[in-house]
Amino acid sequence: MEAIVGMGHFCDTHGPSVILCTHPADGPLLKGAPVATPACDGCRSIDDRTVLVSEGSDRCFVTTRSSMDEHVARLLKDVVLRSLSIEVVSEDAESSGSMYFGDDSRGHVISHVFSLKDSNARGFTRRYCLVVLGKNPISLLSHYDFIEENLRKTGEYLRRKSEQSKAPLKPTAALAQLVDEPHVFAQLHMRFVFLLAAQIYHLEPPRAPDI
């Protein structure tokens, strides 16, 4: 496991759930299928059979709803659980903020937690987290500022879209409905690929593009 970028939310039905996962893959495509996980309308992102791929000169980056590796899928589930239910951030009244946690057995994590407006959720908000999971804490923390800035800006973008949305919501609305953006998961794929393609374990990364 080199580095993985993921997204999760707190579902009123299923609790903390992974809804998106991006990781590098050697070769043109990573063979296999995403690990099946329970999902309601609120948990849905891209279809279970859909794979978003960005190819580079020597490797590609793959985004699926859940990881294609069962071990990684369990690690990400644990990361989302800890981000949304165990670890605590309190940088503002809406409980958004960033944190680092981890260990050598379950991986090391930089996580950004934030909330989006959802009139049908408990407390009228839905909690989300954006996470980078890696195995090397020194490399991860040496790029903490860059990673945290990108996760935070992505969360701020989604929050602005949610606050500007006038679209009526279903009783259990997915992220695309909350931010009124049908292509939001393609946008997140590109943002996650940027993080991984910046070689956060090897090089000083460039400035992030605006979205």
UniProtKB/TrEMBL annotation:
GO terms for molecular function: GTPase activator activity. Residues 44-211 form the UDENN FLCN/SMCR8-type domain. One of its GO terms (cellular component) is cytosol. It comes from the Eukaryota. GO terms for biological process: positive regulation of TORC1 signaling. Pfam families: Folliculin. This is UDENN FLCN/SMCR8-type domain-containing protein. It comes from Phyllotreta striolata. The lineage of its organism: Eukaryota, Metazoa, Ecdysozoa, Arthropoda, Hexapoda.
